[in-house]
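User: Predict the complex with oxalic acid.
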Amino acid sequence: MATPAEKWVEEIARLTQPARIYWCDGSEEEARQIVETGLREEKVEGQPVFHELNPGTYPNAYLHRSHSTDVARTENLTYICLPEQETAGPNNNWMDPAAAKTLLRKISAGSMRGKTLYVLPYTMGHPDSPLAKACLQITDISYVAVSMRIMTRMSREALRRIGNSEDFVRGIHSVGDFDPAKRYIMHFPEDNLVWSVGSGYGGNALLGKKCFSLRIASWLGKREGWLAEHMIIIGVQDPEGKITYLAAALPSASGKTNLAMMESALPGYKIWTVGDDIAWMRIGADGRLYAINPEYGFFGVAPGTSCKTNPNMMRTLQANSFYPTLYTNVALDAKTREPWWEGMTECRPAEMLDWRGKPWQPDRPAAHPNSRFTVCIKQCPTLSPEYENPGGVPISAILFGGRRSRVMPLVLESFSWRRGVLLGAIMGAETTAAATGEVGVLRRDPMAMLPFCGYNLADYFGHWLRLGAQIPRPPKIFFINWFRRDEKGKFLWPGFGENIRALKWIIGRTAAAGSQGARETPVGFIPGKGSLDLAGLRMPEETLAELCSVNLEEWKEELADARNFLNRFGNRMPKGIWEEFRELEKAVSQP
Ligand code: OXD
Ligand code: MN
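Assistant: Here is the predicted structure with oxalic acid placed in the model:
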């Protein structure tokens, strides 16, 4: 008798018509064979799916060049398919589930002809975690099969767990012919299903990551009483050896991965990496909030990553293991066959092929600005010993932040969970050249979840408020901003390893009572005089004062703009958010 999983695979195979079906077991030998297929047989735009890199200096590492139209997550083609548009909210594209499935079936008919249909069984989260989910993804390209083995826990065991059950997360992925006109990333939260066609790019195609672990999981979290968040998880060890765990949500291009594996500028402090992108959090038996990282690898932006900005990521990339490392759309040193990207080294290689595989032209980027590496987390030298703890780590503080040249001080502590949720709900970041669209404009990105919340953000804020009230020992909520500038546009804070100074203050505050070590302002607590450890850092008093200042005129403008943003959600916005908003408005308006 066929299991529900087998029946489902057969059903998709009948629709897509692959030449063969291959069930993956996640083994090393199998990965080697799939890479081999990508090197010798499968093609994208006439090029092999994989190119071998220098086996002496980059053993077991491969270059992939994507289809030229397929280089980033496509938020405009990403849909949440729930019966009511209102449930998906103004933050999501919406399609009726039945209409979406009809469209996808039409596009997918025969889309795998002549290809291999790979079946990928995996779990997100340590299998013994109460939050772990068994999943099955179908794909028709070796690149995605190998990437998923790096990014998830792929194994025969995952399939055994699914067994005869209907209860598994389904992912259907087909690159088809990469036609942008037939590209959709569709989510069906009520069916535990993601269906993605026409794109092989990470966030669109590695369905365990953004699609499941954030969009579908945020929906599950609301239903089941937990949180799926776009957050890093780190342990900060102090000179006495005490480790405090923090979770931090920052929009892209705000230094998230660098913070996740930072090298401390303060002697005696060390950062332990638990995760660099996604946190699943639930209330533990002791009343604290516990976080796990559901992933098994990093899918990081290559440009700007170097021994200076993120030495631990460079070490991670160099630590060869039996998990291959993939480089997507980076440049290639034509002589040495080593990968290269802007910012990797001070001097660029003399002769390079650009990300398309053509001789590099000096007026163009060599690596694509969104080029990536995919690497197993086990290679990270700062990986926390608690990473594999199925119970997760207890979170003492939640940090929100983003790139703001004004308004937000270096660090701010919210007075309460509710105030923290409000400030998280209206948080924004200035866009950078890494994203499409205008540079330097403020984009409101609530809790860095705007592209990743699988339902109406108004309901999501309500979930945060309700859950907060249920946590007996909730983490404190803080806001960080490494990007404040003076009136000449110069950054006021050195950033990188120096950020430990702000973390040290935060950790002190998690244990402090009242306003100890802090100065109260109408919007929250900021560091009190002498409470930030600035030893060894030459920072003039005025710079520090400006960096930590709260300008109420700026805050009034900020709230006027934030009000427009919240209004988009109409009367679905929870009462508690508006009550807190009015309290904050009143506080900043007082003479
Ligand atoms: C990512 C993203 O790739 O947030 O992590 O876009
Ligand atoms: Mn991310």
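Residues 73, 203, 252, 277, 299 surround oxalic acid (ligand 1) (CB under 6 Å).
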